[in-house]
């Protein structure tokens, strides 16, 4: 049975500084490596799901996003943590119209379910906004397996769902 930890990027993996798209802007949140390590040890895949409206707004492009995320993945690897995939939504309804991937829509999660043959009832989602949790709910992740961060991951290490 395959299970995954879905984590939002801005606000969970990194400090949300709005439209972060370069390495020098990127600051990992305290505790994110420890949080991911716990799920990795429990045999979860680790998947980042992130809205990237800055692409639709023209602040940066797909290549800028890819360069940054390749660096992020390498930083996790240095810590012994494998990020299995990164799904992003480059849309924004005011600039590109509606889509099925921008959270709270479940498109990124549904795509991952198919790509990895996941047992969604066993998956966990950690986000910092209600739209993250709503995407999880719409995809079928049980409420008991979702966590809305109120601070940094370091402040939530004792109450992680699914562990």
Specify the biggest β-sheet.
5 strands, parallel
Uncertain runs with pLDDT below 50, 5 residues or more? none
SS summary, helix count: 6
Query: How much helix is in the residues?
Result: 25-40%
**What is the level-2 CATH architecture name?**
3-Layer(aba) Sandwich
At the third CATH level, what is the topology name?
A: Rossmann fold
Q: What is the highest CATH level, the class?
A: Alpha Beta
Record the strand order, biggest sheet: 3-2-1-4-5
* Spatial extent as radius of gyration: 15 Å
| SSE order, one letter for each helix or strand | EHEHHEHHEHE
Strand content: 5-15%
Query: What oligomeric arrangement do these chains adopt?
Result: single chain
Describe what you observe in this structure.
This protein has 163 residues and is an alpha/beta fold. 34% of the residues are buried. It has a single domain (4-156), classed as HAD superfamily/HAD-like (Rossmann fold, 3-Layer(aba) Sandwich). It has a five-stranded parallel sheet. It has helices at residues 32-41, 53-56, 62-78, 93-96, 107-116, 130-139; strands at residues 4-8, 45-51, 85-89, 124-127, 146-148. It contains six helices and five strands, in the order E-H-E-H-H-E-H-H-E-H-E. Helix 6 (130-139) links the parallel strand 4 and strand 5 (146-148).
Task: Describe the protein's topology.
Blueprint: E1 4-8, H1 32-41, E2 45-51, H2 53-56, H3 62-78, E3 85-89, H4 93-96, H5 107-116, E4 124-127, H6 130-139, E5 146-148
